[in-house]
């Protein structure tokens, strides 16, 4: 089945470019276009897309508020939001991750990276580039604003030692294949551990699992080598 994509951007030319690119792929189809956040929410409820490609800065209801509305709607549990941003260290991106976005891409991303990103998020993975993730964690995720803590630290006690280990590796940006190789497990077993951790911690997806891991202190940011 094709990945159903909704485009949300106030620039008609950019939406048109994305539509041509996505519709040219056999495994993807654009189901609608929104020029602002309110339209994105309404069209998401109408079309139930797999992915919303969401710009952050739009007139009226912005992408952040729209992301929160989509991710909070139980009827849109199967819809994932992939944020588009001009700056990967933008504070709005960190806020979007807190409210449920599954990842982000820079607007100057290559064609191949954009299509790969859509497929990655549609498959249930988080899309967080290592450099941008480090910046977000350092500036925002380890010092959450009041009311933004996704799970209290004591919730970590619900995880088994193996689930904690797998969650920590996922939070450091390891893929399921890399985790399986490092821990001498099958990829299917790693996926099972990740899914159980998501359920126990109340995380919407892998991106929120990363946020929770840092906010609760399961993983701490490392100081980059000079």
The share of residues in helices is 40-55%
Output the helix-strand order: EHEHEHEHEHHHHHH
Q: Report the uncertain regions.
A: none
Task: Supply the helix-strand structural class.
Answer: alpha/beta
- Assembly status: single chain
Broad shape: globular
Instruction: Give the end-to-end Cα distance, rounded to a whole number of Å.
Output: 47 Å
How many separate helices?
10
Quote the average pLDDT: 84
Number of E-type strands:
5
Major sheet, described briefly? Answer: 5 strands, parallel
Q: How large a portion of the residues is in β-strands, by DSSP E?
A: 5-15%
Strands of the widest sheet, in order across it, are: 2-1-3-4-5
Give the C-alpha Rg: 17 Å
Domain HTH luxR-type: 152-217
Domain Response regulatory: 4-122
Keywords: DNA-binding, Phosphoprotein, Transcription, Transcription regulation
Modified residues (4-aspartylphosphate): 55
């Amino acid at each position: 089945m094709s990945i159903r994509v909704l485009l949300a951007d106030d620039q008609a030319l950019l939406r048109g470019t994305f539509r041509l690119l996505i519709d040219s792929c056999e495994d993807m189809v654009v189901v609608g276009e929104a020029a602002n956040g309110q339209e994105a929410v309404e069209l998401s409820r109408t079309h139930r897309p797999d992915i919303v490609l969401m710009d952050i800065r739009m007139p009226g209801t912005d992408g952040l508020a729209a992301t929160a509305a989509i991710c909070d709607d139980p009827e849109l549990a199967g819809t994932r939001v992939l944020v588009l941003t001009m700056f990967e260290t933008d504070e709005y991106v960190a806020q979007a991750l807190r409210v449920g976005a599954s990842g982000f891409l820079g607007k100057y991303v290559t064609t191949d990276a954009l299509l790969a990103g859509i497929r990655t998020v549609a498959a249930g993975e988080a899309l967080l580039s290592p450099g941008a993730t480090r910046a977000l964690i350092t500036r925002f995720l380890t010092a959450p604003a009041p009311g933004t803590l996704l799970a209290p630290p004591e919730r970590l006690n619900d995880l088994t030692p193996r689930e904690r280990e797998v969650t920590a590796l996922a939070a450091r940006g390891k893929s399921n294949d890399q985790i399986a190789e490092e821990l001498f497990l099958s990829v299917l077993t790693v996926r099972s551990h990740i899914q159980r951790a998501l359920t126990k911690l109340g995380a919407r997806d892998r991106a929120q699992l990363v946020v929770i891991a840092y906010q609760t202190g399961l993983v701490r940011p490392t100081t980059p080598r000079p």
